[in-house]
Specification:
Rossmann fold; five-stranded parallel β-sheet; 220 residues; elongated; alpha/beta
Length: 220
């Protein structure tokens, strides 16, 4: 199944559970954000996430196979596993465990996968998988993401302030989230002005902003 990256936030937990999620593409910043979104949505109490790399799994494939096929008698909730730097080499192992992913999920991170990639074909067509291509986002996509973040955090920003953040972002979600995080702290202490937005969005002032945030936090 193919899912657009912009549709992830519309889905509920059950949509992703018991699945292998394949995130691939040149936009690693977007992949990181989708990792965070899916983890936040799907985590249950006392469940952790575990990041491992394909190379490590290939060295000891039995470890992850036994984990999903047998598990632990003392472990009620299996970890959500994120496997990074993946290629077609991981597919044999994934096929051996895909039907035993119960009440959790596996997230696969990869760079560009060609159309004939076996891992990409698995993501697109296997019933146990969801495939999310992560291409470079347009200014329209990033502005839509920014507005979503503004609404989630209940911020009141002018169109000019939104454009300032957008121009600062270099079309990266991580920079949008960084700016929103700082604005969130400012909003509890003072009115958000154009000047504050400009200061937050000036890379040379990032250290200065962190120092200001520390001061504001110390007063709370």
């Amino acid at each position: 199944m193919i899912l657009k990256s912009q549709e992830v936030f519309l889905k509920k937990k059950d949509f992703f559970l018991n699945k292998v999620i394949v995130l691939y593409g040149e936009n690693q910043d977007l992949i990181k954000d989708l990792n965070d979104q899916i983890l936040s949505l799907c985590k249950i109490k006392d469940q952790n996430s575990k990041i491992i790399f394909e190379d490590d799994i290939l060295k000891k494939p039995d470890d992850i196979i036994n984990y999903y096929l047998n598990g632990s008698l003392f472990e009620e909730n299996k970890n959500i596993t994120i496997i990074k730097n993946c290629s077609d080499k991981i597919l044999e192992i994934i096929n051996s465990v895909k039907n035993n992913i119960q009440d959790t999920l596996i997230i696969i991170n990869s760079e560009i996968l060609q159309k004939n990639s076996k891992l990409r074909q698995f993501g697109e067509y296997d019933k146990t998988s969801i495939c999310i291509p992560c291409y470079q986002e347009t200014k329209f996509d990033i502005k839509k993401f920014l507005i979503q973040q503004v609404q989630i955090h209940k911020l009141e920003l002018t169109e000019n302030q939104i454009d300032t953040i957008l121009n600062f972002s270099s079309l990266k979600r991580s920079k949008i989230k960084e700016a929103i995080e700082k604005i969130n702290i400012y909003k509890n202490t003072k009115k958000i002005t154009d000047k504050i937005i400009e200061e937050i969005c000036t890379e040379n002032d990032l250290k200065k902003n962190d120092e200001i945030i520390d001061i504001l936090l110390s007063k709370n």
